[in-house]
User: Fold these one by one.
Assistant:
Number 1:
Amino acid sequence: MTDISPLRDFVTGMTDLAETSDGDENAMIAGTRDLLAKLVSRDDWLPEEFTRDGDTYRQYLLHCDPKQRFSVVSFVWGPGQTTPVHDHMVWGLIGMLRGAEIGQRFAPDGDGPMIAGVEETLEQGDIEVVSPTLGDIHKVSNALSDRASISIHVYGANIGAVSRHVFDPATGAPKEFISGYSNETVPNLWDLSGS
Ligand code: FE2
């Protein structure tokens, strides 16, 4: 049985952080970075059912704060899979758990093609930040062509329910979407028999 105590400790730490930061974005990002770095420093706590890839990339909810101040999601990219260019509308951190992924930022440029940033590779243990104030639009791809890559994402809302946008990079035209989640059940953080 997988010992998910690192995830439980992360959720406990995030709950404390949400209380003490009182909604301050900079404090949430700084505190989440430390907690997430610890969480992705080992790869032995994520139950197998939240690591499965599929015909498109998967986003498995691991935990949502009851007050929806933050959510934790396992993103699984199969070989060669990629997201569309998209935004988040809230702060978010990406911690690389397994494999590697390529992130590329985009910025609108009127009605013309979006301005594309350089491609940056996230390796195991690396952390990236997105937010409406720090740059919120990007595209993410699996850097590996022969196996799945997994990253743990933390957002300042119940991200699966947030109305946000995908963009046509050729025109910058936005289209609204709500991502939802790939799973119907979440990990049982409170079965202490395995830890
Ligand atoms: Fe994203």
Note: The radius of gyration is 16 Å.
Number 2:
Amino acid sequence: MLKNKQIVLGVTGGIAAYKSADLTRRLREAGANVRVVMTQSAKEFITPLTMQAVSGNAVHDDLFDLKAEAAMGHIELARWADVIVIAPASADCIARIAHGEANDLLTTICLASKAPIVFAPAMNQAMWKHTATQENLQALQQKGFHIVGPAEGSQACGDVGPGRMLEPLEIIEHVAAFFKKDLLAGKHILITAGPTREYVDPVRYFSNASSGKMGYALAEAARDAGASVTLISGPVALAKPDRVTSIDVVSAKDMYDAVMQEIAACDVFMSAAAVSDYTCDNVATHKIKKTDDILNLQLRRTPDIVASVAALAKRPFIIGFAAETENLSEFAKTKLQQKKTNMIFANLVGRDQGIGTDDNTITVFSDDEEKTFGPLSKARLARELILYIAKKGI
Ligand code: C5P
């Protein structure tokens, strides 16, 4: 996948820089050409000599080095890169690039390059969780940069939590995804994600714990596989994926209307949203007062979006989801039949399982196969699932 691809590997100052040598070696094993750019702090953790030996190329570390500029200057490096990977990406480097600074070689290359830029953050868990870092990450995502990881676990400083750099092979998988463009090229995929809100009065609603993470991860994976993706999302706290057409909805009825509007243009429909099965019949015009001991609300079934799409004369390939607390296989198989979908992606859910979490396990049910993926992070799981459906020739 990475044969002859040109990769600029940015190394910044953090203990995870010891893994950058292994990452370089593995990128080269995968066929890539690697040019390493180190910040001054990176050199406190790993030597340029090591990075030069493993990359097979001179290391770049100075914006104002006349000789280096004469050989391959910063603008040339920026143009040369098919992709830029920053691993480890320190909190400082994230902050500087988020603000468009260009005060060393690496930040200047990032500002000058049109290539996709992938950050593999690595830092202490408290630094990762800090509002300043989180705001910088959001700013990066909004500008179209890609963030992979970090993983959770024990840290060099003795803390436990999020902030460990992804392992080199995991980073390579993300990088390879940029070059897997043809897998779903020409396909248009419609994905629903997140919960819906059914209002009872102007300020109260009922909903569910869906975070939208699985649907969003599928949208990104489908996009990375070359599909053109439309994402119809209920209210969630996630950044909109870049290069995906996003439509925001609130209620099950809104979601139904948006799907019906978009469906004709789609080859595949993935219904990952946790759509409310009921909506309030008479939404109160004003806030309901607590006058009576018992308050009766009349609820009415919402239209089943998946079933409605399945009933269309010209229907796309349909993937429904089943989130169950028990009897996963039995319920999933029933749904496959009743909703007339081509596949069901089923997962067990509970208070700390499947719904709202970062990891998930999904079993795919179709007429001729049953296959389980995970447990994996939702991002990796999404890539595996997209690969699976692409291989099925949807
Ligand atoms: O019917 P149930 O909610 O158990 O099935 C889940 C699947 O059906 C999901 O794919 C969900 O997005 C979809 N669904 C729907 N319209 C509804 C309720 C669920 O499309 N009103």
Note: The domain at 6-179 is CATH 3.40.50.1950 (Rossmann fold).
Number 3:
Amino acid sequence: MGMPGVGKGTQATTLHEQLGVPHISTGDILREAVRQGTTLGRRVKGILEAGQLVPDDLMRELIAERLRQDDARNGFVLDGFPRTSEQVGILDAVLSQLSISLDGVYLLTAPEEEIVRRLGGRRVCPKCSAVFHLETRPPASAGVCDGCGSALVQRPDDTEEVIRDRLRVFAEETLPIVETYRRRDLLREVDATGAPAQVAQRLQQTLEGVS
Ligand code: AMP
């Protein structure tokens, strides 16, 4: 968990590589649906572009279907879900049906000014979802994805006005559920300032229970 732009996607990708479990990003799944123009994609396109949250009922179906897939049997890194108190209940219900429980909830933290700077420079690969940054994580060749060679793009919700809305949605809807997981004694906070490799190291130490 963490504010938009704090580095959840980047860190979840690293964890996916280290742990060999799928990285399940609800944002990536929704963006892919928009790109492919599916029924779901057509319903959520405007919502994503405005930085608002997709209704919980649509998210219920999406997450239940994804977590039931075979590759999630031995664990997964969930990124971007849950984001509302209703979604905490949805996740609890799905996990209980599958007889699995969460090992931990990791909250990445950074000051808001750093977030706005990061989001403004963020560029993503529309094909393989790799994340780059103009200053801190530039691709080897300008404007081109290191992984698959596609042209990098700026997410439509990374413009300054939409960034402000997304931060407000995070404060109103998502911050309260951080407290839910703190009360459940599952929450671990990780300082997400600095280079991605440094953050990955802190996250790794937290995962191993080393402080
Ligand atoms: P992200 O890539 O996690 O920043 O998500 C991008 C956008 O997808 C968000 O601004 C929402 O519009 C939508 N989205 C992703 N995850 C959720 C969720 N759990 N609940 C509602 N909307 C979501």
Note: The beta strands are 23-25, 77-79, 105-109, 122-124, 131-133, 187-191.
Number 4:
Amino acid sequence: MFKALIVDQVDGATKAEIQQLEETQLPEGDVLVAVSYSSLNYKDGLAVTGKGPIISSFPAIPGIDFAGKVLESNDPRYAPGQPVVLTGWGVGERHWGGMAQKARVKGDWLVPLPEGMSERDAMAIGTAGFTAMLCVMALEEGGVRPDSGPVLVTGASGGVGSVAVALLGKLGYQVTAATGRTEESDYLRSLGASEIRSRDEMSAKSRPLEKQRWAGVVDTVGGAVLARALAETHYNGTVAACGLAGSHELNTTVMPFILRNVRLQGVDSVVCPAPRRAQAWQRLQQDLELSRLGEVTQEITLEQVPDYAARILRGEVRGRTLIRVED
Ligand code: NDP
């Protein structure tokens, strides 16, 4: 028997509780993993509270990411004892996820942990940190370099935002962190931000073109904040858009694109192809000061997940939240 968080719908209401399961209850897959850590992402908040249509059929185990060791494998690429990490692929949505002591998944969805990265480190990074790395890679592919000018990170005290600030700071960029929690300014400066901009200022309605401020932008918020970020981006700048924490809408004009050559690059982490995943995990190992993750990370148990799921949706969770799954 092993412990799992089960999300179910009872009389139209979503309920999340800890249950003991047997291995035979797990879905089909080539690799059985002993999960040591999962993590709490915004999407998990939606899944566990039922506030967003994330889980496709009930009952289900949530958890869009996990790290652990292979227990059994029918995939020749994986052997028992091997440390692995998984993010995305609909795990924790269409397939049972990481908030349990065991998970059975497709070998294609796994990434071997980079040498020197612990399972705990991997989940301190998690989907959010992996997505932040993909955003940084998108800026680099758009030609943004540390000497191109200041870069902006929106939703900076959240999971994606915190890791993006830490990565860009370590890479030598001059980072401005846009946040609704200006009381977190010291925290954001300790991560690598040199300037703080308030969310109110960033969400004020913008003209089609504003003063050019940013060589690059990592946007986790969408809506009016993304519209302003586009209007404030330098000639030839790149905006990497990965989130909708503020809004899924985007009301903008073509002006930044046709007059300033601005590139708006979407970033998806869920079905990101395997070679790019491996590259992003290697880059995280190389470019993220793993010791800094301690400052960004808090650790909770499976039992605490429902409470923290509600908190992440209220924008009250700072940085990354690790879920310790093993006993
Ligand atoms: P978090 O909740 O940890 O962070 C989101 C941050 O956005 C908050 O901390 C807050 O930062 C800011 N924020 C929250 N509400 C609002 C609001 N109403 N208006 C403006 N800003 C707001 O979430 P994650 O970091 O895990 O995810 C961030 C976003 O990225 C989410 O929308 C998520 O769905 C998306 N995402 C997308 C992925 C992809 O593959 N494309 C993968 C992972 C995440 P502050 O207090 O500093 O302002």
Note: The chain has two domains: 2-113+296-324, 125-266.
